[in-house]
């Protein structure tokens, strides 16, 4: 949620200077045309580039949607461009749609492992996980399936959310599932940028930011967003970290309200081959927007040879289509639809699912 909010705030500042449409067109023209769709297992994706190396980007959450338009342009400008220039085909992939209640982070990691096996020929060169969702899934993926990737980079995630982070994630997901976008956005603003909150304006600005972050959803969004939040709130990944057998680069900061400094340091200590880069004097908004991150990741990959050199066949079954809303997507002005199972009035914390 924090990483997507950062992009939204950057966009807000940008839109004060230039028109949204013109800016989006210009930035998209500077990047390869995004290609995307939904894999057969229900995981939506967007692909940029056609380089010989593969990067699997596990998005932040909660909310299993792929960025389009201006969010995609800004994400490309802030994060993806250096990887494209270094020869990576970048795949931005969300959690699958219509997850059952009680679905865990390790089960989500198994979805990504299966995707790599079925669609990417068994291995990708680099996995990047952003924020708590992408980070926790990345840890579990690398621990259980080190043969599916050569390197792992995690931005702004430790082994466990603190109580404040859990409460914010669960409340945001509940409000989104109920279609209360203004309140969800206000909560997000108060969490990632407390100095910007103004009585009477936070809901209006928050609603605009949420529509920017989630311009389209899908029929299972209301259920999935709560399932994701419950899963991340429940997990403590310390038990799997010592099993990670690939080189890991971990980014953190010392002013993070969700992951205190000691959590970042303990996370790095428990992973056998982990390099921790801690941004001193920065909060997650400042650290996550640092343009050095992708360059540091590329340097890390070059300086840390993969543990396993053997490659499996990479003949995938990927069928691409242009990134356009499909018939299952919900119009921006409508509240998210509830899936086949009601989201329920309040989320619960039912087991960590780590085993």
Quick structural gist:
By secondary structure, the protein is of the alpha/beta class.
Which ranges are low-confidence, i.e. pLDDT below 50, for 5 or more consecutive residues? 7-21, 309-353
* Distance from first to last alpha carbon: 26 Å
Please write the string of helix (H) and strand (E) elements.
Answer: HHEEEHEHEHEHHHHEHEHHE
What integer value in Å does the Rg equal? Answer: 19 Å
Number of strands: 9
Query: Shape from CA axes?
Result: globular
- Assign the structural class, choosing from mainly alpha, mainly beta, alpha/beta, alpha+beta, or little secondary structure: alpha/beta
Beta-strand share of residues: 5-15%
What percent of the residues sit in helical stretches (DSSP H or I)?
Answer: 40-55%
Query: What does the largest sheet look like?
Result: 9 strands, mixed
Assembly state: single chain
How do the strands of the widest beta sheet line up side by side? 8-7-6-5-3-4-2-1-9
Average per-residue pLDDT, rounded, comes to 81
Number of helices: 12
Structural notes for this entry:
It is a single chain. By secondary structure, this protein is α/β, with parallel strands linked by helices. It is 42% helix and 15% strand. It contains 12 helices and 9 strands. A 9-stranded mixed sheet has the order 8-7-6-5-3-4-2-1-9, with helices on both faces. Strand 1 (35-38) and strand 2 form a beta hairpin. The longest helix has 17 residues, at 69-85. The chain is globular and about 55 Å long. It starts with a helix and ends in a 33-residue tail after the last strand. Mean pLDDT is 81; it is low at 7-21 and 309-353.
